[in-house]
Design brief:
WD40/YVTN_repeat-like_dom_sf; Methylamine Dehydrogenase, Chain H; PorZ_N; four-stranded antiparallel β-sheet; ABC transporter substrate-binding protein; single chain; Immunoglobulin-like; signal; 45% strand; Secre_tail; mainly beta
Length: 765
């Protein structure tokens, strides 16, 4: 019992921490993959992969709930809303249960099922059924009671032969008995008033084989077989009502209607079991939806789909409407790219071995998403000229409306003003342009890293072809560079690509470490590889390289971190050599991020490094790496997954976007890019009111600005040198005590003293 109590306390404490820091986080989730729906008299409740939303069917108001609000990033498997208790129950595939109180929005994480001494793959929650204030939870091991009044668990029923665990898909109460449909072991029942339901011998088998669900509806008990038959109880056995064209996925009582959902049909039956409607997916124009569940509220059918969110349809009418919250196409975002105004996202991609055929079972057919001041714009695959496996986004720094998207299967896409203008491939780039991979299908062109140089030329890497480094010049001409000087085959698996201040291109690779190239020095190539004599990388699978404000190059590999002390060494040293960062932890010297699989490194305006990993979340480390400022994981933050795919930063606002395999969130950082002058300095909040508990932000700064804060009489209370474009003051006098109410002067000056700015802030205690 102590173990359970500690787990509950830990989750409660973490939940409180999330809520206290909610203002720093924001969620950007997709609500398109609907797992389950529930309802009250005037609201629809829907669960996507790891987020929820509700819609008031009268006002149309939509409210979303995700990990920023306290949900888990794990996969949701079932949903139930209790109108009587005003609580929503969320069930997960791993057995976690979250109870949301509709009155105050509070959440209770319930881990009892997770903590059961059962195999982890048997804890999935399949269905909730409420009867007299008790919710019967159908799980892959049996049935669990949960009291909504006391928020306590009751008995657990293992109803298989001999008390074994069997997968229960759904329960229903009918004529004083509780019926349980099972995936492989028939339908079993027992008296609902029997105090010994935890004794398997009290349960009777009334039907054999596999059943997807069972539901009480009016004077009938209905059930669906795993083979696709809708049946009803007649006497002591089930008889067939109709044979469905597909296996049923969901059956539910919606008051006046019984609703049965298959992959492409929603069948609606009235009280006499007459079919009054068949909503066919072919009726919905413009998309090809696959249904997952459905319900009816006030004569409107709300249909959950696997990729297109919630589609609503008035019974008897022909029109359809999408009722899904705004969001990206998917939660598993492969790559992102942020500018001051917009954020772009693509969904991949390739697997860890740079194989597009091993990612989602083949070259993917996912679209492109853009987030801006008008919300999300989603460009579907059908509008991309069949370009597949989209892996990277590069935005023209001189023209934000011009965006290039790499396809690791089809070439390079160019968007102008959100419209696809051209797909670059073998047919339209000439002899110096893009090439197909030898031995593969003709359109297999694996473009990955792309980046603009200072002159506006776009540099491109193309894997597994000779002359894999290419450039698209501003005049539209292509040029390619041979790379046999590095290895005889001249072909590589290319990852990301960056350019330093000297114009040197740095390419990450799967098997050849880091490759540097500068065409201005007689097409000079140099490499950084594994081994003390070859560059000192821990492994030659280099995932990312990032150049910081001190011209150091931070390199993330599949087995740790290395730093090249200066990118200038490319021009001066024959062999480029990297070093680990050694830190002291508990008075022991050790390597920072030792053997961590590092996926991305992004440098913020204060020269801190945001480091995303394959399974350990996100680290924010100081400019020299000696201090870990934050380490965000699913256990201490709204991160929906510890597997990070990409990170990018809005340099103006400091918002840090973190794309994971289960959704994207952002953290409101304060390290913005430095400005060129002090014309746009501003202070917020101003005034600082008594209820405010945060810091005062001074934004619009130049780098290394001197900041002095005094009271109105000129007494100095704080002084510092800024890093980046934003500084935070904790409203203390040199960190010792909170300053008193009053007006405080903020004097800002450049290092040379030529440019100055004075601001005021009022503090009210």
């Amino acid at each position: 019992m102590k173990k359970y109590s500690f787990a509950f306390l830990l989750l409660f404490v973490l939940q409180m921490g999330f809520s206290q820091n909610k203002t720093l986080w924001k969620g950007y989730f997709s609500y398109n993959e609907i797992k389950d729906v529930s309802q009250s008299t005037d609201k629809l409740f829907a669960a996507s992969e790891n987020a929820l939303f509700s819609k008031n069917v009268q006002s149309g108001e939509i409210k979303t709930t995700n990990t920023v609000d306290g949900l888990s990033g794990q996969t949701i498997s079932s949903l139930y809303h209790s109108p009587n208790f005003k609580k929503t129950m969320v069930g997960y595939e791993n057995g976690l249960m979250i109870i949301i109180n509709e009155v105050d929005g509070s959440m209770l994480n319930v881990v009892d099922i997770i903590n059961k001494a059962l195999p982890s793959n048997m804890k999935k929650i399949n269905h909730f059924m409420e009867y007299n204030g008790i919710v019967y939870i159908s799980c892959d091991f049996g049935i669990v009671q949960y009291n909504l009044a006391t928020l306590q668990f009751g008995d657990t029923y293992f109803i298989g032969d001999g008390g074994t665990q069997i997968s229960v898909t759904q329960t229903a109460v009918f004529n004083g008995k509780i019926y349980a449909s099972t995936l492989f072991n028939g339908i079993r029942n027992a008296s609902i008033s029997n105090p010994n339901l935890n004794d398997f011998k009290e349960w009777t088998t009334v039907a054999n084989f596999g059943w997807s669900g069972v539901e009480a509806f009016g004077a009938d008990l209905m059930a669906i077989t795993t083979s696709g038959n809708l049946q009803k109880l007649q006497g002591n056995s089930f008889v067939n009502v109709t044979t469905l064209s597909e296996n049923a996925l969901d059956i539910r009582n919606c008051g006046a209607y019984l609703v049965v959902t298959t992959k492409h049909h929603v069948l609606i039956f009235n009280a006499t079991l007459s079919q009054i409607a068949d909503v066919n997916s072919n009726q919905i124009l413009g998309i090809e939806p696959q249904f997952s569940c459905a319900t009816v509220i006030a004569e409107t059918v709300f249909i959950g789909t696997s990729d297109d969110g919630i589609i609503s349809h008035k019974i008897g009418e022909s029109s359809f409407e999408n009722s899904t919250p705004d969001g990206p196409l998917r939660n598993d975002i492969f790559a992102i790219s942020s500018t001051t105004k917009n954020l772009w996202a693509v969904y991949g991609g390739y697997d860890q071995d740079y194989n597009p055929y091993g990612f989602y079972s083949g070259p993917t057919k996912f679209g492109v998403s853009k987030f801006g001041n008008k919300g999300w714009l989603n460009i579907p695959y059908k509008d991309l000229l069949e370009a597949r496996s989209l892996s990277r986004i590069t935005i023209n720094p001189n023209n934000e409306n011009q965006v290039f998207v790499s396809s690791y299967y089809s070439g390079l896409l160019k968007f102008e003003n959100d419209q696809l203008s051209i797909l670059y491939n073998v047919s339209n780039t000439g002899s110096e342009g893009l090439q197909s991979v030898a031995g593969q299908v003709p359109d297999d062109i694996r473009v990955n890293g792309t980046v603009f140089d200072k002159s506006g030329n776009l540099w491109v890497t193309s894997s597994l072809v000779k002359k894999g480094l290419k450039v698209l010049k501003t005049n539209g001409e292509w040029k390619s560079y041979a790379m046999e000087s590095i290895k005889p085959s001249g072909t590589f698996f290319f990852g990301r690509l960056i350019i330093d201040k000297n114009g040197t291109k740095w390419m990450t690779t799967l098997k050849d470490g880091i490759i540097g190239f500068n065409e201005n020095y007689n097409n000079l190539f140099k490499t950084i590889k594994n081994g003390s004599d070859s560059g000192n990388l821990p492994i030659e699978d280099a995932k990312v390289a990032a150049i910081d404000a001190r011209n150091q190059m931070w390199i993330g590999t599949r087995k740790g971190l290395r730093v090249l002390s200066s990118v200038d060494s490319f021009l001066s040293s024959n062999q480029l050599t990297t070093s680990p960062i050694i830190i002291l932890e508990e008075n022991l010297a050790q390597e920072l991020l030792y053997e961590q699989s590092i996926i991305d490194i992004v440098v913020d305006g204060a020269n801190n490094k945001w480091i995303g990993t394959a399974d350990s979340g996100v680290f924010l480390v100081s400019p020299n790496g000696q201090q870990t400022i934050y380490h965000f994981t699913v256990n201490n933050s709204p991160l929906p997954s510890n597997t990070i795919n990409d990170i990018d930063i809005n340099g103006t606002t400091g918002e840090v976007f973190i794309a994971t395999t289960r959704g994207m969130v952002s953290f409101k950082g304060t390290s913005t890019d430095p400005n060129e002058n002090l014309e746009n300095v501003y202070v917020y909040p101003n005034p600082v009111r008594p209820e405010y508990v945060g810091t005062v932000k001074i934004s619009g700064l130049i780098d290394n600005a001197n900041i002095k804060i005094t009271d109105i009489e000129g007494n100095l209370v704080y002084e510092t040198i800024s890093e980046g474009g934003t500084f935070e003051w904790d409203t203390t006098a040199f960190g010792k005590y909170k300053v008193a109410s009053g007006v405080y002067m903020i004097f800002i000056s450049a290092q040379d003293g030529i440019e100055t700015k004075v601001k005021k802030v009022m503090i009210i205690r």
